[in-house]
Amino acid sequence: MNTISEPRPAVTADASAAPIDDGIYTHAALCLVGLPIAAQAEPFRRVVGEAEVLMTPAPDATLPAGRWLRRLLMLICDTALRTDSVAVDLCTDLPALGELLGAEGNELADLALNYDHLITGKLAIGFGSGAPLSLFDARGRPRAATEWRGSVRLGARFLASLGENKVLLDRTVVGSLDATPIALDAYCWVTHMLAAGKRAGADVPAPMTDWESLVGAFGKTGQSEADFRPEFEDALRLVSVQCPDLSLVVGESGVQVRQSVPRVRPAPPAPRADIRATEEMVLKPRPPAPAPAAPAVAAAPPAPIPTPRPAPVAERPAPVMAQQNPDAPLRGPRGSIGLKANLTGLTQVIWLNQSNGQDDPIIEVTPGFRYDSDNVTQLALEPMVIQISGGLYQREFERVSAWAMANRDLIDDVWDGEVTAIDEINARVKKVPAPGWR
Fold first, then answer.
1. Is residue 75 part of a domain?
2. Range of 22's domain?
3. 36 and 153 housed in the same domain
């Protein structure tokens, strides 16, 4: 399915994106590398760009995995940054830890097992140049857990790396997604991409991450792209539900992440309080209807008129079709405005619409200048941009989608009725990014 979706501005590389009490800090490397989903006895190593994660289980144990591995690492990173200390005090006992992370009942046993395997195994995280850094100080790591350990000791170099490469997640979103580890991975990846985009600036186009790279970062060992894509697309949909202000382009070539501009709908005009009744507003009595006329006296029928012979009809000249002005604005039904190829860089015509009482914006696409209701494709832009009628080929869909993302501010302004002048619309239209842009 061709989709584009729009998560709220929940993260950035510093604490300014969200109130600190609403956020959870994690390491940027943990946003780019998907951790094990299921327990395994073999060591785990994954390198994705500048991020690297190495995990080795304790003897006769398995690696921590799944939701609790991810939540425990977030808790450790967040506590270490807030206290600015390598000595991280977590919870006094297992029930307290379960309450903190939302585990109860049978989940507590799984949480305890993952916590034990995490603190007794080895975990190294790398980001940027240099070798991966050990998460825990080797001098403070137990060889086996004989009793509850409510504190851990981090490596000083890792704490420094965490401070330089921290990412702030939304605590509510994390809690809503942690039952689905791949959705939590997708959310962490999205937040890192948004932070990178914010640092790059609004004028730098968001990159498209290809599916091969996403499989290498978040797929299971040996998983094919065909099996991975449906899982990751479902995970992105879960993220979109929790984060409605995110824009995602999900196509055949990969996924693009960008922050959408918050939409502010114009307030309805306030009723005028100074209206006075005028002479023209006073209802006047309707004049009486005229009396019906008396029936006429019956008269003799007129003499029949002879039927004239038809005159020969001259052949009409063929109509002369007026040439279409290439610079003339295109108008469609319900006040829609057509944008030609010379403005958009597309081969189709894009039709911008006003809301007409609808909530979520749509755009329409036709192959020619004439608006043909039988040959139009409609794209909805929220909460996920999707082809809701008609049919564009995959490549066409990706090009139109890229244009819509680049022109979302203009689309919203026309939809809300804030911009109606053709000249202003033409001046603000941006052309679609060139094929293959990164």
1. yes
2. 1-26+166-252
3. yes
Q: Where are the beta strands (DSSP E) in 171-228?
A: 208-210
Mean pLDDT in residue range 209-217:
94
- Range list of H helices, 201-299: 211-218, 225-242
Q: Name the nearest CA neighbour of 243 among 223, 262, 217.
A: 262
Split into its structural domains, the chain has a count of 3
Which of 164, 196, 227 is the endpoint of a domain? 164
Are 34 and 126 members of one domain?
yes
210: left (phi over 0), alpha (psi -120 to 50) or beta: beta
- Give me the residue label for tokens 């200390």: 85
Predicted confidence at residue 89, as pLDDT, reads: 92
Determine the 3-state secondary structure of 335 from DSSP.
helix
| Residue 293 placed within a domain | no
Predicted confidence at residue 302, as pLDDT, reads: 56
Give the model's pLDDT for residue 392: 76
Domain boundary among 203, 227, 252: 252
With H, G, I as helix, E, B as strand and everything else as coil, classify residue 183: helix
33, 123: one domain: yes
- Is the bond preceding residue 383 a cis peptide, omega within 30 degrees? yes
- Which amino acid belongs to residue 413? D
Q: For residue 295, is it within any domain? A: no
Instruction: At 302, list the tokens.
Output: 């007129």
Note whether residue 408 is domain-resident.
yes
pTM of this prediction exceeds 0.70: no
Tokens at 88, concatenated = 């991280």
Within 164-237, strands assigned E span: 166-170, 208-210
Same domain, 181 and 145: no
The count of residues in the chain is 438
The model's pLDDT over 130-164, given as tens digits with 9 standing for 90+, comes to 889 999 987 765 555 567 888 999 999 999 999 99
Q: What are the angstrom distances between the C-alpha of 221 and each of 38, 61, 149, 225, 414?
A: 11, 20, 32, 11, 47
